[in-house]
Amino acid sequence: MKIPSSILTLLIGIFITLASLWYGQNHGLLPVAASKEAELVDGLFNTMMTIGFGLFLLVEGALIYAAIAFRRKEGDMGDGEHLEGNIPLEIVWTAIPAVVVLGISIYSFDVYSRMGGLELMNHDMGAMRAPSVEVAYAPSYDADGNLISEAGLGIMPGTATEENPVLSIDVQGLQYAFIFNYPNGIVDGELHVPINEPVALNLNAKDVLHAFWLPEFRVKQDMIPGQETKLVINPILEGTYPVVCAELCGPYHGGMRTQLIVHSKEDYDAWVDSRLTAMNAGDTTIANLPKAPADRTEAEYLAPFVEPLQLAIAPESLASLRDRSTHQIQ
Ligand SMILES: [Cu+2]
């Protein structure tokens, strides 16, 4: 007996739905999610993978079915049947993508605003704030030309208050390293942050365009010479993660990497204390920076392209870091 086509369609629909829902959670395309931002972005990405995989099964399934079911019969040399189109079908396959695209755009806008894309920290914490919504892709200024908010991702709504200041770290990108200027004058080639606290990164570039990318945090922000950009992150998982330059910035761009270490609160305080103790004892070296290219052996010179956590940096760039003013706690 033949299965009725309505039942067959239902079964195929159930199969595609279940397969898509499973694949959306099990695609394995992303590294570990180590920030609140990553959880939001992954929710959006998994939704798109679910929809995309369902459409893939539907379209490819129909294609393979049609290729087999409607193939040329033995000895048939005639033309195919002439079709003028199907209005209901065309409305359906226009309406479904329209609804999908509209839904994803609303969802992604929601993720963006929940990540602080519309709610930047101001320099003066509110008093001078313009009444309009701040949009984070460009800096905004008041009538007198004073900067109200920088370009970038601001603080997640509801995660910090004026009484509870955010740890603020200046990050400088230069060929080919990242330099982190912490409060209290600590300077380091690695980014150390405490867990479960928002951290504001004030990004700047010394020479050319760079981009500050944290794959495990799902955030990336341009580093622009002469214009500060902002990136606020919310670490939720202790560990060591790569920091990658994601803007082709010169011949050793591929070696422009360092690491982000998310500590427990106690470990972070201990790290700060150890660095302050070393500074007070007269140690002015910047920790975790690599040898200058001129001082390297050939093997060391090529190492960044094999071992991604080593960097290349020019000595004159290093020397100019000393006089850089440090950022105050906001
Ligand atoms: Cu770079």
Automatic annotation (TrEMBL):
Start and end residues of each Cytochrome oxidase subunit II copper A binding domain: 164-274
Gene3D superfamilies, per database record: 1.10.287.90, Cupredoxins - blue copper proteins
Domain Cytochrome oxidase subunit II transmembrane region profile residue range list: 21-119
GO cellular component: plasma membrane
Protein location: Cell membrane; Membrane
Bilayer topology annotation: Multi-pass membrane protein
Co-factor remark: Binds a copper A center.
Regions crossing the membrane: 7-24, 44-70, 91-109
Record function comment: Subunits I and II form the functional core of the enzyme complex. Electrons originating in cytochrome c are transferred via heme a and Cu(A) to the binuclear center formed by heme a3 and Cu(B).
Protein name in UniProt: Cytochrome c oxidase subunit 2
